[in-house]
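User: Predict the structure for this protein chain, please.
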Amino acid sequence: MSVRLAGRAAQSASPAGDAGVLLGIDFGGTKMAVGVADGEGRLLARERVPTYAERGAPQALDRALELAAKLVGEVGAPVAAAGIASPGVVRSDGIDLAPNVPGWDGLRLADAVRDRLAVPAVAVDNDLNAAALAELRLGALRDADPGLVVGLGTGVAAAVTVRGSVLAGHHGAAGEIGYAVAGGPWPGTMLELGFSGRALDRLAESLGVPGGARGLAAAAERPGPSRDALTARADELARHLVTCCLLLDPQRVVLVGGVAGNALIRGLLGERMAAVLPYPPEVVLSRFADDAALLGAVILAREAVPTPR
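Assistant: Here is the predicted structure, written as structure tokens:
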């Protein structure tokens, strides 16, 4: 599926500032989004395509760069800087903790974008950190500190914002709660294997419910095995979110990602957190739908543009 942006902001915005346009790329385990924005960060064009994770990393990267070249060509301006949002912990020579696309750990994203598209400045960050940056600059965390962004999509992760910045952590792995220990006996399993888009797809299949995670959530609206199974998974996730909130004491929690879009799941998580936390934070759904990480990538690009001397 591809989506083009055609709105008043896109039509009225200047194609490029003095330095050129900004390129944003959001790589996900299920979908990839590419956007071209003017110098102020206003999207001029955007398309989304499937990742086809089972086909491996090289084809995904190649198709994303082809799409980026096409959109840049249509806008007709040079690229001043690019921002990339990627799963995992991004290093200059590879990527850690990104198991959902085979071969993703061997990619050098900044080098690939710089070489293929002749972009002078490239910034790369974790996709949920990019989403948190968008919430800080444009969204639900502009007036909240500290903040917690929880991504519920193909995988599970979190991002912490403090005093207007996204906390990276010592290894750049802050918020990788998908690796949290769940169940038992010790060491149990990973949280992401129990509650994520793919985990809920598998749960739906085991229950004979068509439609994957979406179908499971719909079936869980009624009492029965689907609701019991989904509630048990939500309980496990809620325990970890409670611990995150006790550690951070966030003013606001922002939920992003396709799974977070389900009202029943949001309700289950919010109810459980409110029932046990001494200072329950406000829990909201991101208003950016699927675009938070892409908008964050554009912000990364904007902040990477060299300052004129």
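The mean pLDDT is 92.
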